[in-house]
Amino acid sequence: MENRLIDISEASDLLGVPKSTIYDWTHKKIIPHYKIGQSLRFNPVEILEHFRCAPISPTNMPSIEPLKDSLIIEKEMKMRRDLHNKGGSNERK
Question: Hey, what long-range contacts does 51-59 have (CB within 8 A, 24 or more apart)?
Answer without folding.
Answer: 51/15, 52/76, 59/28
